């Protein structure tokens, strides 16, 4: 059964108001009737951006102030600064025991728990920026302190911005990060490359962009809604001796497929390195 947000107002505090927090908050706001959102960040300009999304959002430069009394605390700062952010929050965290939801790449639940004083419920998740338009994909992992209700709460919050998928093995989140966390950037790069190529074929920039982006959207929707595999859908575009075949031959000669395998491996490896460098 799909978990629903409870009728009770749930207070969700974000620490960090950067790119990913903004994507999640904008996406979540349409369901804000059941969510009270608070955000902290040292940069008042970042907080002003958040406030422009909705005057009902409470903002502060003081992390303690936003987590005090919160049901859920979303950790949305860079992995490299998490330790220095969490250690000063230890006393409040131990007293109030909110559910912590970390979106930081790599950083293991055990490290987070050590920095927060131990034995706290922590959900690690890996969302992505299409959350901004409620088309996100999030992988989730819960430690053993997380109750059934908290698991459901975390899932219901992330489901306001897209699909969710649970993993019982924490290490799998490194692969999720490589695939869907970083994934939007790969597709944007392909769009950039196709746009530039279209312009070099003589199309106007605005025509090139519209054709490329609509084609990406159409291909994604078709792959999502069809019961056929992407490989079958690709074959249906590729006429023997035709234009698609000419293009795909070039991409294969350039090593596109093994290059993707190497790229995702590098992202997964970087996620593991971030974990090792921050214990
Ligand atoms: N961007 C993405 O697509 C995704 C990111 N993530 C994860 O989300 C997290 C945030 O990434 P992203 O949003 O891209 O990074 P950003 O740098 O855009 O955002 C981080 C924010 O945290 C602020 N910050 C720094 N120190 C503190 C502090 N002590 N207390 C409160 N806030 C602080 C930063 O302020 P300042 O700039 O002034 O330092 C910045 O505004 C990372 O851990 C990343 O791994 C996960 C999935 C996807
Ligand atoms: O690049 C990064 O490290 C973050 C995590 C996934 C997407 N952005």
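^ Assign residues to that structure.
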């Amino acid at each position: 059964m799909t978990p629903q947000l409870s009728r009770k107002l749930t207070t969700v505090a974000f620490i960090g108001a950067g790119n990913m927090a903004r994507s999640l908050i904008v996406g979540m706001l349409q369901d804000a009737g059941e969510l009270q959102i608070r955000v902290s960040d040292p940069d008042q300009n970042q907080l002003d951006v958040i406030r422009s999304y909705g005057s009902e959002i409470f903002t502060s430069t003081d992390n303690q102030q936003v987590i005090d009394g919160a049901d859920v605390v979303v950790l949305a700062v860079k992995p490299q600064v998490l330790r220095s952010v969490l250690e000063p929050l230890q006393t409040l965290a131990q007293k109030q025991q909110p559910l912590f939801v970390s979106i930081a790449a790599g950083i293991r639940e055990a490290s987070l728990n050590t920095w927060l004083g131990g034995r706290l419920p922590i959900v690690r998740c890996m969302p992505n920026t299409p959350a901004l338009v409620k088309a996100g994909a999030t992988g989730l992992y819960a430690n053993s302190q997380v109750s059934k209700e908290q698991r459901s709460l975390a899932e219901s919050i992330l489901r306001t911005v897209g699909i969710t998928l649970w993993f019982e093995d924490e290490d799998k989140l490194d692969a999720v990060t490589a695939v869907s966390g970083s994934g939007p950037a790969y597709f944007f790069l392909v769009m950039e490359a196709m746009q530039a190529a279209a312009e070099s074929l003589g199309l106007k920039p605005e025509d090139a962009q519209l054709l490329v982006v609509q084609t990406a959207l159409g291909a994604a929707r078709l792959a999502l809604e069809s019961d056929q595999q992407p490989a079958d859908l690709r074959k249906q575009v590729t006429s023997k001796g035709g234009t698609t075949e000419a293009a795909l031959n070039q991409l294969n000669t350039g090593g596109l497929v093994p290059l993707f395998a190497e790229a995702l491996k590098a992202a997964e490896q970087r996620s593991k390195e971030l974990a090792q460098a921050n214990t």
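The domain at 183-274 is CATH 1.10.3730.10 (ProC C-terminal domain-like fold).
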